[in-house]
Amino acid sequence: MHHTLDQLRNIPVPDLRSAMQSGPNPRTYPIDRTSPFYADGWVEARAAGLSGINFYHTRPNPPYNMQISGAIEQLFIRQEVAKRLLAVNQRLAPAGLELWLYDAWRPIAVQNYFHDEWMPRWLQSLDPGLQGDALWVEVEKYWSRGAPGGVVDPDSPPPHNTGGAVDLTVRHIGGDPLWMGTIFDDLSDRANTTHYEQRELGRSFSDIEARANRRLLYHVMTEQGFTNIWTEWWHFSWGDQRWAVNTGAPAAHYGPMNPCE
Length: 261
Fold this sequence. Notes:
Layout: H1 5-8, H2 16-21, E1 42-44, E2 76-78, H3 79-92, E3 97-103, H4 108-126, H5 132-139, E4 165-172, H6 205-223, E5 227-228, E6 235-237, H7 241-247
Helix pairs in contact: 4-5
C-alpha cells in the first residue's frame, strides 16, 4: 500500500531495539566482494542534488562548537546511496520538504578522535569512576570503534567510512529542519528513534510533533531500503554491515572507501 506523507506521520515506528540487539556484531559480518555494488563509486552529495553541510567541519555544531580535526567540507556518499536519497527527496517534494545531510563518509581521523578521545573524556567528566572495559562499553554505545593508527580493517570498517551511512533529517526546502525532539548527536534516551513511541505524550505539542516527524523520516527512508540505528533517529544506512544485519542480507555490499586518496 502506498501511503501519503500525512499517513506516514501517523504510522508508529516498530520496535527497533530488540531486533538490533538480537543480531550478530555488525563489524564481524561478511562483506561480499563479488557484489556488483562492492566497487560502487562515490559522489559528493550536493553535486548530486542533495542538501547539507558537514556538521563536524562547520560551526556552529553543538555540542562540540569547534571544527573537528580531520573533518572535511565534502559530503561523500556511494552512488547507489545517492540514487536512493534522491528518490526520498522526490517523495518529499510535493509537501515542500527535502532531506538535509549532517554527515556522510567520515575520515577515520574523525572517527578515531571521537572514539578514542572526545567521548571517553566526556563520559569520565560525568563519572570519574568509569574506567577500563566498562568505559569502552559505554563509549561504543555512541561511537563505533575506529582504526588504530588510522589503518582501516577492510573486513571491519566503521559504518561511516564505507560511504553507505548517512546522518540526516527532513527540512522545509531551503529552510528550517522539522522538529525531531533533540539536536543531532544528542546522547540521551530521547535520541532513541522510538523514544516518543514509548511514552505518554499528553498535551505536549512538541512531543507529538517530534513523534510525527520521526515517523515520517523513518518511513520515507525505509521505503528506499535504508535501515536505522535505534539509538539515533538521524542515522540510516544502505549496503554496509549494519544494514546487512538489520535486513538479514547474507553479506554487506560495502567495505571501506577513501575518496580523498
